[in-house]
C-alpha cells in the first residue's frame, strides 16, 4: 500500500508505481519475476486514469498477461479471480493486481471528480439534467427505498457509521480516526436526505498492489490462500414492474463459499464494499450474514463491532478508513489474515469473506480467503 492522503499530490501512475514497489519488496521478488499484470482504475473517462500503459511506465517487461479490468467496485475481486485462473491454467506464474486513484485535485471539492462520472447520455443524462449529480443523490434515493421497505431508521445508518469509526480509531492507515458517537453523527450535515456527510465514503489519493502466485518461492512469510470466488450481475433495468435496487447478489457468496467448502459460520471476519452506510446494511441482509436478524438491529447490537460474532470492515471500511473502491476491503482482509492488525486485530482470524459491488448494486463479487497453515 501507499499512504492514504486527503490532499492533492501524486498522480495515479506515480501512486501505482509506489504500491507495486512496496508489494515486490513485501513478496521478496524482483519486477522481472512478474509475468502478469492486471490494472484497475476508478470509473469515468479521466486523462490520468490508470490503464495498461502502466506496464511500460512502471518498468514491467516480458508479460504473458496484461489487461485493464473494469466492473466498477467489483473490479478488485474480478482481478483476483482473473489472476487465479491465469495461475491455475499456467498462462502466467506471478500476477500483480494494481488499483490506484487520485480524485483529490487542487481547487476542486473532494466529490467533484465522482459527480461528473457516468456521462451525459441515456438515463444518466436524464438524471444529470434533473440535478442528480453523481452517486450521493442516487444512493440517497436507494437509502430512502431501503428504509421504507425494511422499516429501517436513521439510527441504523448511525450504527454503521459509528461502528466503522470505532474500528478506524485503531487503524494507522485510516484517514479519519477521531472517536464518533451518535450525537456526532447526527450533528454532521445532511448532504442528500437521508444521507449525512458521515454516511459517505472518504475518497483518498492512494494505491494498493497485490501479488497472486502458486509458486512457494514467492510471497510474504504469511501466505493467504484464495479458497473461493463468485460473481453475480443482476442487470437491473430500473423501470416499472421490477425492484430497481435490491435482490440478487447472494449467489456470488454462495458460490464462493461452496468453492471453498465452507459455510457462513466458518467466516471469522467480513470486509464489505461500503461507499455509503446503507450498503453495509443491504449486503449483510442480501448475503444472509445476519442469521435472519434485521441488518439494522444486527449492527446496533454490536455483532459487527469489536468482540462481535461477525467483525465487519475492521479497518473502518470506506466510511472512516479510506475509499479505494474494492481494494479497501481486500487490503483489510489481508491485514487481518496476516495478523498485522495490531490493536484492531480480530483474535484467531484465519478466514475472511470479501465483498465488492459495482454501480448501484448492479454487480456483486465475493472472495473467500484463508490464512495458509
UniProtKB/TrEMBL annotation:
Matching InterPro entries: Thiolase (IPR002155), Thiolase-like (IPR016039), Thiolase_C_2 (IPR055140)
Superkingdom, natural source: Bacteria
Segments forming domain Thiolase C-terminal: 249-371
Pfam families in alphabetical order: Thiolase_C_1 (PF22691)
Matches recorded under Gene3D superfamilies: 3.40.47.10
Residues spanning the membrane: none
Descriptive protein name: Thiolase family protein
Organism: Gordonia hongkongensis
Species lineage: Bacteria, Bacillati, Actinomycetota, Actinomycetes, Mycobacteriales
Amino acid at each position: 500500500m501507499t499512504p492514504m492522503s486527503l490532499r492533492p499530490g501524486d498522480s495515479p501512475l506515480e501512486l501505482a508505481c509506489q504500491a507495486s514497489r512496496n508489494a515486490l519488496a513485501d513478496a521478496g521478488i524482483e519486477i522481472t519475476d512478474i509475468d502478469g499484470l492486471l490494472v484497475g482504475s476508478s470509473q469515468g473517462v479521466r486523462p490520468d486514469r490508470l490503464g495498461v500503459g502502466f506496464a511500460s511506465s512502471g518498468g514491467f517487461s516480458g508479460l504473458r498477461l496484461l489487461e485493464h479490468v473494469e466492473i466498477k467496485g467489483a473490479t478488485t475481486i474480478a482481478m483476483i479471480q482473473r489472476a487465479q485462473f491465469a495461475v491455475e491454467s499456467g498462462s502466467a506464474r506471478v500476477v500483480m493486481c494494481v488499483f490506484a486513484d487520485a480524485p483529490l485535485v487542487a481547487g476542486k471539492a473532494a466529490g467533484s471528480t465522482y459527480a461528473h462520472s457516468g456521462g451525459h447520455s441515456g438515463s444518466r443524462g436524464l438524471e444529470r439534467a434533473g440535478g442528480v449529480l453523481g452517486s450521493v443523490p442516487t444512493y440517497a434515493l436507494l437509502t430512502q427505498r431501503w428504509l421504507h421497505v425494511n422499516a429501517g431508521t436513521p439510527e441504523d445508518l448511525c450504527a454503521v457509521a459509528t461502528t466503522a469509526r470505532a474500528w478506524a480509531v485503531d487503524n494507522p492507515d485510516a484517514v479519519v480516526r477521531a472517536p464518533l458517537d451518535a450525537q456526532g453523527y447526527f450533528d454532521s450535515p445532511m448532504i442528500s436526505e437521508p444521507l449525512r456527510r458521515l454516511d459517505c465514503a472518504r475518497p483518498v489519493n492512494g494505491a494498493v498492489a497485490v501479488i497472486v502466485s502458486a509458486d512457494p518461492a514467492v510471497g510474504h512469510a504469511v501466505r493467504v490462500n484464495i479458497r473461493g470466488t463468485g460473481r453475480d450481475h443482476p442487470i437491473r433495468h430500473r423501470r416499472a414492474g421490477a425492484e430497481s435496487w435490491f435482490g440478487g447478489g447472494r449467489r456470488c457468496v454462495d458460490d464462493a463459499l461452496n468453492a471453498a467448502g465452507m459455510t457462513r459460520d466458518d467466516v471469522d471476519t467480513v470486509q464489505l464494499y461500503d461507499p455509503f452506510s446503507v450498503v453495509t446494511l443491504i449486503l449483510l441482509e442480501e448475503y444472509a450474514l445476519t442469521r435472519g436478524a434485521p441488518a439494522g438491529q444486527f449492527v446496533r447490537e454490536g455483532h459487527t463491532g469489536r468482540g462481535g460474532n461477525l467483525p465487519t470492515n475492521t479497518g473502518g471500511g470506506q466510511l472512516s478508513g479510506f475509499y479505494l473502491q474494492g481494494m479497501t476491503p481486500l487490503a483489510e482482509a489481508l491485514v487481518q489474515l496476516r495478523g498485522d492488525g495490531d490493536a484492531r486485530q480480530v483474535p484467531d482470524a484465519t478466514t475472511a469473506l470479501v465483498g465488492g459491488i459495482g454501480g448501484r448494486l448492479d454487480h456483486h463479487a465475493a472472495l473467500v480467503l484463508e490464512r495458509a497453515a
